[in-house]
């Protein structure tokens, strides 16, 4: 007989897409395309603005986002060739950001999900990464992978991505 344990709270601060970046992405995405909102018929899209899944009928948009470019502009790093962009879902209009309705622990952490945990140094260069299949305790698996990533002394930033699509899910900065 197995017992289900409540997810433990994350030890690292998970960061959604910043509000100023969201405002810009809702006009023009990082690939230079205009935002095209639509009504989500089924729900379930991973929203990077509030770190929860969309609900049926919500107005959302799929835009191209360059997370490392945005972080580099904020910190003065130069990611060079590691500057990449990819698709992310967000609410079509302003939202309040994470509100706790997604539950405790890490966003988008479901048993069986495939994730990539990628670490970068303060200059914006990739230090390596790890593929990860989340098990029965997905928050514990992610927390272990993040601790491992930050065990590298030069790691300043970690991105967690959906392995199947390469999509950026969230970032974690070195805890100080």
Model description:
By secondary structure, the chain is of the alpha+beta class. 17% of the residues lie in helices and 29% in strands. It contains three helices and ten strands. The protein has helices at residues 19-25, 67-75, 138-151, and strands at 14-15, 38-39, 46-47, 52-53, 59-65, 86-91, 114-121, 126-133, 155-162, 168-173. The strands form three sheets. It has a five-stranded antiparallel β-sheet, covered by helices on one side. A three-stranded antiparallel β-sheet has the order 2-5-6, with no helix packed on it. It has a two-stranded antiparallel sheet with strand order 3-4. Strand 3 (46-47) and strand 4 (52-53) form a beta hairpin. The chain is globular and about 45 Å long.
List the helices and strands and how they pair.
Layout: E1 14-15, H1 19-25, E2 38-39, E3 46-47, E4 52-53, E5 59-65, H2 67-75, E6 86-91, E7 114-121, E8 126-133, H3 138-151, E9 155-162, E10 168-173
Antiparallel strand pairs: 1-10, 2-5, 3-4, 5-6, 7-8, 7-9, 9-10
């Amino acid at each position: 007989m197995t017992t289900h344990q409540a997810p433990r709270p994350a030890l690292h601060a998970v960061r959604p897409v910043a509000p100023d970046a969201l405002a810009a992405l809702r006009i023009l995405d990082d690939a230079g395309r205009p935002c095209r909102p639509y009504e989500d018929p089924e729900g379930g899209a991973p929203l990077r603005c509030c770190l929860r899944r969309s609900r049926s009928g919500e107005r959302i948009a799929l835009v191209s986002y360059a997370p490392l470019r945005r972080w580099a502009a904020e910190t003065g790093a130069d990611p060079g060739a590691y500057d990449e962009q990819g698709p992310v879902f967000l609410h079509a209009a302003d939202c309040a950001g994470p509100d706790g309705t997604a539950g405790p622990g890490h966003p988008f952490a479901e048993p069986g999900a495939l994730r990539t945990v990628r670490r970068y140094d303060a200059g914006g260069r990739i230090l390596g990464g790890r593929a990860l299949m989340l098990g029965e305790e997905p928050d514990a698996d992610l927390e272990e992978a993040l601790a491992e990533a930050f065990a590298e002394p030069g790691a300043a930033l970690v991105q967690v991505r959906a392995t199947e699509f390469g999509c950026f899910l969230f970032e974690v900065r070195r805890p100080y």
